[in-house]
Amino acid sequence: MALVLDPDAAMPSRIISERSFQFAVRIVKLCDGLRNGGRAARKIADQLFDCGTSIGANVSESQGGQTKPDVLARLAVSRKESWETIYWLRLAVATSIVTEDAVAWELDEAQQLKAMITARSRPVNHRTRVEEKPSMTKAMADGNHQTISHQPLAIDSVSDKCQRRRQCGGSAAAGSSGRRGAFILPSSERQPLFSAVCSTASSFT
User: Fold this and answer.
1) Can you give the residue range of the structural domain that contains 39?
2) pTM of the full predicted structure?
3) In this structure, is residue 107 part of a structural domain?
4) Neighbouring-strand partners of residue 123
5) How many domains does the chain have?
6) Can you give the CATH number for the domain in which 89 is found?
7) How remote is the C-alpha of 66 from its chain's centroid?
8) pLDDT per residue over 133-188, tens digit each?
9) Residue 25 and residue 32: Cα distance in Å, rounded?
């Protein structure tokens, strides 16, 4: 689903940027404390440091985006980093590296930042609607179909032309030979002409 910027959400964007910065400050301090622990704590601290501070960095970068796709890409990365931050915080609690009370604020703030960033990039369904043309079946079911009318051929005009050509002494014929313009004699004159041709031919034999 495509995402678009909400022009009315300029102030919430600044709030997200400020809150994500303060969140990054808390994450940095938390990770410094975790690095004093064992190997697992240091590994989680490294992962948590990267994603926890990346939320605010990408939100801040989105404010300087030159194009809408650029802004949306930065917000998408920030939202993804918030999901990863929540994961590492939960893992730290589940492995008893930290107590749930110790990171309660960070968990809650990461959830809220994720929701705010998601709301900052909203679907286009309420902004741009594509009017769908009803299908033929649905239109016929609703009784809204249109009857297709076939325009009759201009037979009368063709007949008139042929009649005028007959009056002029013949009609244009287009036979199998493809020749045009040949004149056809009336039936009353065909037999005498045929007899004359035959008698002429017999005189040469």
Assistant:
1) 3-126
2) 0.55
3) yes
4) 3
5) 1
6) 1.20.1440.60
7) 23
8) 444 444 444 555 454 444 544 445 545 555 665 665 544 444 444 445 555 656 66
9) 11
